[in-house]
Known about the structure:
Bound molecules: phosphoric acid mono(formamide)ester
Amino acid sequence: MPKSLISIQDFSKEEILHILEVAKEFEANREQNFLAGKVIACLFFEPSTRTRLSFEAAVNRLGARVIGFPDSRNTSVSKGETLEDTIKIVSNYADLIVMRHPVSGAGQIAADVASVPVINAGDGANQHPTQTLLDMYSILKTQGTLDNLMINMVGDLKYGRTVHSLIEAMYQFNSKFIFTSPEELKMPKKYLEFLDAKGINYEENERIEDHLNECDILYMTRVQQERFSDMDEYNRVKDFYKLEASMLGNVKPSFKIMHPLPRVGEISTDVDDTPYAYYFQQAGNGMYVRMAIISYLLGYR
Ligand code: CP
């Protein structure tokens, strides 16, 4: 079975650091054409702007070509074809498959039947490992290190796949985690138990103001309407946090605000003009990191 990236734990610490190093090379010179002749399938069963377009841009910068779909409604999925059959078919056409899917665990189902590497571009509330790698690249660029940082994760920690993946990678760098959320959206127990087993410090909290002045990274997240079955519950928590520029008076000089985006109100636009806003650059970093991941899984770097 070819090596895939479904969970961030599929990559060792050494592999993660290798990807970050190669991404740096690609950022210095983004016109690479060594994948000419390769075909990459980008299959998006769930909406995306950054992940899909940065993957497609990455494929083009590497000289390969893209096939795929941004919306599965025009595919044979609408006739009842299973995910397994779809992936077996696409394996015949492409050298690597990038897939986003709304169901947790769909990435592993795809990797189990594919004859080519599969990259999980987000599966339900489970994992978003390529987001984690670009988040780590962004942290390294802004902090100069990955080690011993205080990371405050805010918002939807229950359904937020980006924070789940980030914990499973950053624990290896002795992070101190603050989990800031309303009661309804707390970090699932399985991730807290994971950190307990690794001996990593964390604190759960409800107020965004409490650790702002100590933390290195404030990792904001959106409350994701699409993950709620109860709209009353969504309406109760959707406006729980709103970060404003006026709250940033005493933060560390190196402090950065990250967000996987899209945002829907949890970061006021007046924050965009502060030196602490890094979410747009963070999304830009995604293309270089995804170039590095594709190159690595195809055995080129
Ligand atoms: N960060 C992220 O996954 O964004 P998209 O949903 O736009 O791909």
